[in-house]
């Protein structure tokens, strides 16, 4: 069965990519780009392999990568970390998030997440035997998803231990704004929560929207683990190089968990990502501009099929309510879509505790070549 929260079935991404491959559908489901990252970064990995970077790196990650991560965060956000004690390189953001939860959430502790939430959160919380408490995000009159601070207060209890925040947010495309971040920071401070922030889309922001790490708010650095990865930033989702930054007292328990999950990973990829962080920022900016144009292109295509996509300020994702097409069950719709018109998408219902709460919403990716998006739009037009 497709997993909707227990952490035991097949992920929706695996299911939909397999279906797209079987049916020859245009795959706007799983979020991965169809073009590779900066050529110099790819070359750096090849060179590193040829030069013998093929054995275990240090558990915490190559020093040059940890230094590059620290330098980037200092430059972009003005936050400072000690590369030796406050940075840990992980096997993608997925491992960083799982290890952070295993380290900081004891059985029956509560973890606050904003719903809809990325699918690995439910599974990782379940692995830590924690309890998930959701804060619903809903669209406002403009179509931007946000949350009500009262719902955040209502979700917190004496058992709350961790707050998990993803911004820019998958699947809604929301970038949490100053007011929302202030409410979250206040909640964390008041209730002595550890914040774990998933910032994998930190560079993929559009229309001048600004991503502000929660750790930069007053009193938050000492209680926040900031997670990111190279996958989205450098269009290298298969490299699985991620990291977590935070105060040493929070990072050290994550390091202890990580050492028995994977110990370390991807020496040559770490060499290349370190170089890319330091030298490929112009490429990243150009990529964000391409993605913004792709978002607009997909939006136009969806509008032509009669849909009104929600606001997307960042990420790879555009969501739409499918009810204008005369259907309300997004799970069924996404299972049929590849057969009907040759397009694959993700039912956002899988990102909710109760799938009924997100049932008519479907998520499409736009991290694809313009002609691929155009072809998907042509095929979707057959729905009407
Ligand atoms: N968090 C979010 C919100 C994601 O969308 C993804 C998927 N890329 C991840 C984490 C996983 O990142 P990684 O591939 O670096 O493990
Ligand atoms: N993050 C990607 C998405 O949301 C998928 C990653 C995965 O396949 N697990 O589409």
From TrEMBL:
Q: Name one GO cellular component term.
A: cytoplasm
GO MF, one term, reads:
pyridoxal phosphate binding
Keyword annotations from UniProtKB, A to Z: Aminotransferase, Pyridoxal phosphate, Transferase
Question: Where is the Aminotransferase class I/classII large domain positioned along the sequence?
Answer: 26-380
Q: List the InterPro entries.
A: Aminotransferase_I/II_large, Kynurenine-oxoglutarate_AT, PyrdxlP-dep_Trfase, PyrdxlP-dep_Trfase_major, PyrdxlP-dep_Trfase_small
Query: What's the cofactor?
Result: pyridoxal 5'-phosphate
The UniProt entry's sequence similarity note says:
Belongs to the class-I pyridoxal-phosphate-dependent aminotransferase family.
Which named protein is this? Aminotransferase
Q: Which organism is it from?
A: Micromonospora wenchangensis
């Amino acid at each position: 069965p497709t997993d909707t929260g227990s952490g035991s079935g097949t992920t929706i991404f695996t299911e939909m990519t397999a279906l797209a491959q079987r049916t020859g559908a245009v795959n706007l489901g799983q979020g991965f780009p169809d073009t590779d990252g900066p050529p110099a970064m790819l070359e750096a990995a090849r060179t590193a392999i040829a030069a013998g970077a093929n054995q275990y790196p240090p558990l915490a990650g190559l020093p040059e990568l940890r230094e590059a991560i620290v330098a980037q965060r200092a430059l972009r956000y003005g936050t400072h970390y000690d590369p030796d004690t406050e940075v840990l390189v992980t096997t993608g953001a997925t491992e960083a998030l799982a290890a952070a939860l295993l380290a900081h959430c004891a059985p029956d502790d509560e973890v606050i997440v904003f719903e809809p939430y990325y699918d690995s959160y439910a599974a990782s919380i379940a692995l830590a035997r924690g309890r998930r408490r959701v804060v619903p995000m809903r669209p406002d009159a403009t179509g931007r998803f946000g949350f009500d601070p009262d719902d955040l207060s209502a979700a917190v209890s004496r058992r709350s231990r961790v707050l998990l925040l993803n911004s820019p947010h998958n699947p809604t495309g929301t970038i949490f704004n100053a007011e929302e971040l202030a409410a979250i920071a206040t909640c964390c401070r008041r209730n002595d929560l550890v914040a774990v922030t998933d910032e994998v889309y930190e560079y993929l922001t559009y229309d001048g929207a600004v991503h502000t790490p929660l750790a930069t708010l007053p009193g938050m650095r000492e209680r926040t683990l900031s997670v990111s990865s190279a996958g989205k930033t450098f269009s290298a989702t298969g490299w699985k190089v991620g990291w977590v930054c935070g105060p040493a007292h929070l990072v050290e328990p994550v390091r202890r968990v990580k050492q028995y999950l994977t110990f370390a990973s991807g020496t040559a990829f770490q060499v290349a990502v370190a170089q890319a962080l330091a030298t490929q920022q112009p490429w990243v900016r150009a990529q964000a501009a391409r993605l913004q144009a792709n978002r607009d292109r997909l939006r136009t295509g969806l509008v032509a099929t009669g849909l009104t996509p929600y606001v997307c300020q960042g990420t790879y994702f555009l969501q739409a309510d499918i009810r204008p097409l005369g259907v309300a069950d997004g799970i069924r719709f996404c299972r049929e879509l590849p057969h009907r018109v040759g397009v694959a998408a993700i039912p956002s219902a899988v990102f909710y505790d109760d799938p009924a709460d997100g049932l008519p919403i479907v998520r499409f990716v736009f991290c694809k070549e313009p002609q691929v998006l155009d072809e998907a739009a042509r095929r979707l037009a057959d729905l009407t």
